[in-house]
């Protein structure tokens, strides 16, 4: 009787233990928010066209070539990857990070980028870009999110807006950049194909000499990255251990 009891106790104990081990393992991976980072553009634009939204007859180039620094001569695709790589480093402890690209020499269309983030089950797709304008005095950061009134993004728009509000405040606080505000967009392929919340940060104007130089400074890039981290931590309620 004693032996039987202890065998039963052992079985129950081992069941409980294996159960708790599985739960801990699940909690560890499941609780980390999944962030899909898309460094805008690539070394060569791709003018082959794709539908701007699922089922749409409107076609847009798969990937445009982006802008270029008037002072640094740096192409946008290089800058976006620099910041994206720093962001990956900073986020990977508290988030599961999916990188759309780690190299400039890729050929991934905007719809494909969105689809990859969808498949990864991202909690947020974060698209990093820089701006350009014929008017070289224009500068500042813009925060783009999917339009609430567009049929292809209406399901992801409200949450994207919530995130972009928090994110923009944190990034502006950190960088002290001029804000060009929150901008709803219904014409972006990368938004329209997304099934997960998505925001796009235009980090500044590479056509403005001062801002172009600043965007390439490692310390300024760190401020952008820190701002994004703080914004995400605040939205996803990540407690940062000091
Ligand atoms: Zn761009």
Describe the structure.
With 242 residues, the chain is an alpha/beta fold. The protein has two domains: 1-31; 33-236, Zn-dependent exopeptidases (Aminopeptidase, 3-Layer(aba) Sandwich). It has seven helices and eight strands; from the N terminus they run H-E-E-E-H-E-H-E-E-H-E-H-E-H-H. The chain has helices at 2-30, 76-91, 110-119, 157-175, 189-192, 209-216, 218-236, and strands at 34-39, 46-51, 59-63, 96-99, 124-131, 141-146, 179-185, 198-205. The protein has a six-stranded mixed beta sheet with strand order 4-1-5-8-6-7, sandwiched between helices. A two-stranded antiparallel ribbon has the order 2-3. Helix 4 links the parallel strand 6 (141-146) and strand 7. The protein is globular, with a radius of gyration of 22 Å. The termini are far apart. Zinc ion binds at residues 40-41, 66, 76, 129.
């Amino acid at each position: 009787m004693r032996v039987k009891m202890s065998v039963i106790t052992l079985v129950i104990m081992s069941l409980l233990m294996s159960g708790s081990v599985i739960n801990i393992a699940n909690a560890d991976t499941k609780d980390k928010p999944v962030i899909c980072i898309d460094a805008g553009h690539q070394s060569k634009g791709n003018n082959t066209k794709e539908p701007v939204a699922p089922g749409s007859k409107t076609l847009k180039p798969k990937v445009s070539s982006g802008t270029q620094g008037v002072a640094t001569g740096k192409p946008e695709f290089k800058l976006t990857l620099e910041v994206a790589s720093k962001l990956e480093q900073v986020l990977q402890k508290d988030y599961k990070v999916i990188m759309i690209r780690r190299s400039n020499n890729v050929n991934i269309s905007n719809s494909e980028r969105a689809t990859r983030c969808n498949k990864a089950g991202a909690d947020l797709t974060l698209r990093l870009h820089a701006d350009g304008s014929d008017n070289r005095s224009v500068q500042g950061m813009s925060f783009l999110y999917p339009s609430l009134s567009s049929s292809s993004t209406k399901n992801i728009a409200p949450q994207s807006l919530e995130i972009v509000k928090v994110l923009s405040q944190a990034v502006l606080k950190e960088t002290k950049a001029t804000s060009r505000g929150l901008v709803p967009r219904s014409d972006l392929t990368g938004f329209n194909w997304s099934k997960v919340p998505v925001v796009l940060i235009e980090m500044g104007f590479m056509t403005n000499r001062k801002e172009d130089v600043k965007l390439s400074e490692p310390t300024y890039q760190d401020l952008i990255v820190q701002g994004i981290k703080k914004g995400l931590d605040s939205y996803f309620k990540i407690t940062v251990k000091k």
